[in-house]
Amino acid sequence: MSHAIYLAIVMMSLIASGCSQMSALPSPGDSNSSYSASGAQLNDDEATRARLYQQYQQWRGTPYAWGGLSRQGIDCSGLVYLTYRDEFGLPVPRTTLQQSQIGSAVSRNELRPGDLVFFKTENKNRHVGMYLDNDQFLHVSTKSGVIISSFENSYWENHYWQSRRLAD
Fold this sequence. Notes:
Blueprint: H1 3-16, H2 32-38, H3 45-59, E1 69-70, E2 73-74, H4 76-88, H5 96-99, E3 104-105, E4 116-120, E5 126-133, E6 136-141, E7 145-150, H6 154-159, E8 160-165
Antiparallel strand pairs: 1-2, 3-8, 4-5, 4-8, 5-6, 6-7
């Protein structure tokens, strides 16, 4: 198979899949316990919040791109993947579905900075963001790129699915 055909097939695969459907990149550890054990540094709410806002400042406005992992474009699970890897030294899976299965469930009224918040959007798609504080979360919007949104927005309120904590 020629290089051009292979590249075209890879690009079509990326375009045809959504944020929650991307193939996983290798990440160390496979069990839920490895995430909470390594996430001890997430227990400092102020430090976690500060790192997340710092990440926001670095990525703010970066456009949404399916499967993206760069300043040219990034998807929701990619932002989570890079943030936890780069800011917290914590390996997390690459896809939204895999991310929704790690750590421990936490109720929305007990959210702390760094908790993952998940949404079920149209056509069985899943979306993920990282909780900041005061009902706000950092994520990648398909229209606005990397932004901070609020649960007070009726869209997010109506599509909320679950939250996961990666630290004990």
